[in-house]
Structures are given as structure tokens and as C-alpha cells.
Design goal:
CATH topology of the largest domain: Rossmann fold
Order of helices and strands: EHHEHEHHHEHEHEEEEEEEHEEEEEH
Radius of gyration: 23 Å
Mean pLDDT: 87
Helix content: 25-40%
CATH architecture of the largest domain: 3-Layer(aba) Sandwich
Distance between the termini: 39 Å
């Protein structure tokens, strides 16, 4: 299936039934627009919302805050069980105003877990969580999805977006682009094809990136990383291996420590007599160094 591209929030959300749970990488402005549109769209329905602005009742302890909602929603599970599900038992006596951002998010997720909403909008649900907290939240979201709850989540991190169960999109240049998943492209055993995906580690998972989505490859502190929409992902291959695999996709070894996607290059700049950079046409306008010794090869490549 060809990954979808939607040009507006309204169009994307109107097709949410097609995609299932939606997870979107975007900036704060788009997160705010999503929240306002969804809240209006879901008015009168059993929906739950969490934004980064929510702090709760600041003088309450975590336990007293959750106890109020435990009674309000008529939750049948023991309160300790609810708190344990989100790793909150050790924070029982902590006041809400003293919680760290990740602890605050887990507390609000515990709250809406008792609401039994049919739809949830979550802003940055994995931000500032440690590995255990991330696993607990992902387990809960996955469980709720299986029970028919619909989710739309918004993230500033592509990695967090891809970790969520459902369909991932990223926002770029005014449109929403569906992230292609490895399982979307089926092959027969007798099919002969060349692997064009670059594996990269994200926590305990391995993500597969299409070369066209990679801005550049960077070698730093004996590790190699691919840069995708402003975020670095660790890869296990050597730079020489990556150069060999990616050159057929338009990548150029512009520096001993860098490979650059030539399709992403917007302009060449000479900063000093011996200092050159390639400026990319991504949102960050990334500046990738170009070695003086590789300038002639680049000129030959571009015929200039």
C-alpha cells in the first residue's frame, strides 16, 4: 500500500477509521491545532485528553488526586493496582506540584485509565519517561487499542511516534505523511529484490528507514547515526558499509565522518578558505561539512 499524504488536519482525522489509532510527529503549533480541532469534533462524546499544560490539583498528593477520580469514575479496580500499572506507588505521598514531567504524565495517564473513555488524545505521552515508564505506557495503550479505544497522539519525536501501536504520520511542509511500515510491503519467497532499508536502533527495537527519509549520516564518538527529521538514530554498520549501501540511493561521502543525501542539499557555501558546508533543505537547514579534498568529486557529481 502506498503511504498516504493528507493536506489538512480535518482530512486526516476524517480518515481516522481507515488508519486506526493515529500517532503524529509534529511541532507544538500543530499539536495545539490538533487538540482544539479534536476537542470540538468530540464534543459530547466520552473522550479523554492530556496536554503538557495539565498539572492537576497542585496541593494534592498523587494518591489523593487519583483517589478523587477513582471515586468519580466508579473504578472497580483497587487504587493500588491502578497506581502500580503506571509505576506510581513510590510516589504516593508526593505532591502534584513537585512531580517531574514524566511522573506527572504517568499520573494523568492513570487518571484517564479509570475514565474508560472511548477516545483519547495524548500530547507527548512518552516524553521524559524512563525505559520502564515507556514500557508501562505502551503496554496500556496497546491493551486499550485491543479493547476498541481510539487514540490520537502527538509527538515532537519521530522515535516516540514510531513506538506507538497504530499508524504513524509526520508533519512536513504543510502536509501529513504516513510513515511506511516494513510489514506493509509483502514479498514472496521467490521474489528477488535488493534491501534498501537502513536498520537503526531505538531502545530495544530496530527501526527500518527508507534512504530517501535520511538527511545525512554522522560518525561521532566511534558510533554512527542516521539523521531523520532532526533526530539521530544509532546504526550498527560502519561508515564504509553505509557508503557502499547508500551511494546507489544518491548519498555522497562529503567528509570522513559524514554521508549526505544529495537530494536534500539546497546549497553549497564556502565559509573560509578551507571550510565548506552543504546546507540541506530540511526544516533545521542542517549544515553538513564538506572536506576540501572531496570538493572536486562533488563538482564532478553535480557537473559545476
Amino acid at each position: 500500500m502506498t503511504p498516504a499524504i493528507q493536506e489538512a488536519i480535518e482530512v486526516l482525522l476524517n480518515h481516522s477509521d481507515t488508519y486506526g489509532c493515529l500517532h503524529i510527529e509534529c511541532n507544538q503549533e500543530i499539536m495545539d491545532e490538533l487538540f482544539l480541532y479534536i476537542k470540538e469534533h468530540m464534543h459530547g462524546k466520552n473522550a479523554a485528553y492530556i496536554t503538557l499544560q495539565e498539572k492537576g490539583y497542585e496541593r494534592d498528593t498523587v494518591r489523593s488526586y487519583l483517589r478523587f477520580f477513582h471515586e468519580l469514575f466508579g473504578e472497580t479496580r483497587d487504587l493500588d493496582t491502578v497506581m502500580e500499572d503506571f509505576g506510581l506507588l513510590g510516589l504516593s505521598r508526593r505532591r502534584m506540584r513537585d512531580l517531574k514531567p514524566g511522573e506527572c504524565m504517568k499520573t494523568h495517564l492513570a487518571r484517564i485509565s479509570m475514565q474508560r473513555a472511548e477516545f483519547c488524545f495524548l500530547e507527548e505521552p512518552l516524553l521524559n519517561l524512563d525505559e520502564d515508564g515507556t514500557k508501562k505506557v505502551l503496554h496500556w495503550v496497546d491493551e486499550q487499542c485491543d479493547n476498541g479505544v481510539s487514540f490520537i497522539t502527538a509527538h515532537s519525536s519521530l522515535r516516540h511516534t514510531l513506538l506507538m501501536p497504530g499508524t504513524a504520520f509526520y508533519y512536513e511542509n504543510g502536509t501529513f505523511h504516513q510513515v511506511e511500515h516494513e510489514e506493509d510491503s509483502g514479498t514472496c519467497e521467490e521474489d528477488i529484490f535488493e534491501i534498501l532499508k537502513i536498520p537503526a536502533k531505538s531502545g530495544s527495537r530496530v527501526l527500518f528507514f527508507d534512504p530517501k527519509d535520511i538527511d545525512y549520516v554522522e560518525s561521532s564518538n566511534k558510533n554512527n547515526y542516521v539523521s531523520v527529521r532532526g533526530e539521530l538514530f544509532l546504526v550498527q554498520s560502519t561508515m564504509d558499509q553505509l557508503e557502499e549501501n547508500l551511494k546507489k540511493s544518491g548519498f555522497f561521502r562529503c567528509h570522513r565522518s559524514y554521508l549526505v543525501n544529495l537530494q536534500k542539499v539546497e546549497r553549497f557555501e564556502k565559509w573560509t578558505k578551507n571550510s565548506y558546508v552543504l546546507v540541506l533543505n530540511n526544516q533545521a537547514k542542517s549544515q553538513v561539512p564538506l572536506s576540501k579534498g572531496r570538493l572536486a568529486e562533488l563538482k564532478e557529481t553535480f557537473h559545476w
